[in-house]
Amino acid sequence: MQPQIVLLKEGTDTSQGKPQLVSNINACQMIVDAVRTTLGPRGMDKLIVDGNGKATISNDGATIMKLLEIVHPAAKTLVDIAKSQDAEVGDGTTSVVLLAGEFLKQVKPFVEEGVHPRIVIKAIRKALQLCMDKINQMAVRIEKQSKQEQRALLEKCAATAMSSKLIHQQKDFFSKVVVDCVLSLDELLPLNMIGIKKVTGGSLEESQLISGVAFKKTFSYAGFEMAPKSYAKCKIALLNIELELKAERDNAEIRVNNVKEYQKVVDAEWQILYNKLAKIHESGANVVLSKLPIGDVATQYFADRNMFCAGRVPDEDLKRTMKACGGAVMSTANDIDAKVLGLCEHFEERQVGGERFNLFQGCPNAKTSTLILRGGAEQFLEETERSLHDAIMIVRRTIKHDSVVAGGGAIEMALSKVLRDYSRTIAGKEQLLIAAIAKGLEIIPRQLCDNAGFDATNILNKLRQKHAQGGQWYGVDITKEDIADNFELCVWEPSIIKINALTAAAEAACMILSVDETIKSPKADAPPMAGGGMGMGRGMGRPM
After folding, report:
1. What CATH number should be reported for the domain holding residue 360?
2. What are the coiled-coil residue ranges (predicted)?
3. ∠ at Cα 165 (485, 75), nearest 5°?
């Protein structure tokens, strides 16, 4: 009798072969079912409550996937492609998960019947190449003769991105705001130069775009109300020092023999503080911003000299102010002079709803803008912020890649037709596999119909007929419960979204199909299994 050979640590779970591959595909299907209903203008929202009781309402695919905390190793692949789609182009996160899941669902019967996964992967890659060629051929480059025409294109792309969000009824208002926001940036369009601040109360239409840096008023000490709240052509000192030490950082001990020595220590402490404040005043600064607290003595000192100060400024806002206004964040008061000060045309503190905001406008160094959002519930404002982030990403991408395609399932139907036509020209297993992937692409228009409560089978039959007759831009028309030429209706999406989504979905499907064995190591803190550790499964477990 051959002795049993133990290769893996006790408690390791291994599964391999066809059942394991089918199990991975089924896990991905469960992920797809979780986000399926959020697609499109009539998509539903998800209410997710985390372990701390924080509620999030969202229909953004990447946000939902992030909050679900998925542990299945194969299903995590779909989470990763949703995150990468969000980071790369900002929109199409639900579509990319749906496409990957549907590709796997369509090829699952072939895997169960014994077709080798490598043949399936080859067919998916071939289909992807055909789709890429067709998108590049169909994509329309919009002629931008003037700034007005470019604006119109960008606003249409932003409106399409927001049509599936909570704020879809205000998409005309917000598409203008988003385009203004992105066009105010410099050529590289850095995302970190756009700030989004939320103020509860008021209506969405009361949201405003500030051309410059804006952040909420920070905690202030007594004497703050005496300082001026507005300057023209102001100079800004940016600090990373605590001007007035409110507590000891280290345990220090000073031994004194009499009152005079104690007085000398106190006087020296005051002198150090006043020297710091005098150097800041002598530099010519009107506004002092610090990442660390500014105490009451410093606040009153600055107020007496017509200077404004704010402590505990968030790091992100301090860095944005530095990039926009110039200057440098100083860690000592000794080297402060006119060279390290930032400049801006106008500074003021203004009331916005129930909050006060510090506004820096006319920043010379870098172009920046801040969106101040108004609205009711906090969850609603957070979802509005996520929606605007997606729209901003879309507008940035459209400026860099100005070719567009029609949305509403039109491009997916056109690609499906191309793959079907191609599959009829080839023989063997690949014909069936490419036809299956062509059917998988129809998930987008089908799901748009299902989410809107339409008869999906009827509308898809109409779409197949129109595309066969050469109507390549026909897709689902949500408002009329029918099909329409979505290019004429200006339902436009940047072609880069579709290229990215299809590439990521196909690669994720190929990766899951190429896994033939899953090995899960036991957790470090898991209790030992009964009777383990001896190779043949006999004997006592090793004492811990």
Report:
1. 3.50.7.10
2. none
3. 100
Residues 6+ positions from 251 with CB-CB distance below 8 Å: none
Return the structure tokens found at 442.
């129809």
Active site residue 93: yes
183 in any annotated domain: no
Q: What is the pLDDT of residue 542?
A: 42
> Which segments within 163-243 are labelled E, that is strand?
194-200, 208-210, 212-216, 230-239
pLDDT at 215 over 70: yes
Active site residue 133: no
294 and 414 share a domain? no
Other CB atoms within 10 A of residue 506 CB: 22
Model pLDDT, residue 446: 93
Edge-to-edge strand list for the sheet holding 140-141? 140-141, 403-406, 492-494
* Catalytic annotation, pick one of 38, 63, 77, 94: 94
Between CA 451 and CA 413 the distance in angstroms is 18
Q: How many residues does the chain have?
A: 544
Give CA–CA dist 246/210, Å, rounded. 35
- Judging by DSSP bridges, how do beta strands 55-58 and 46-49 pair with one another? antiparallel
Query: Is residue 384 annotated as a catalytic residue, yes or no?
Result: no
Rounded Cα distance, 237 and 343, in Å: 9
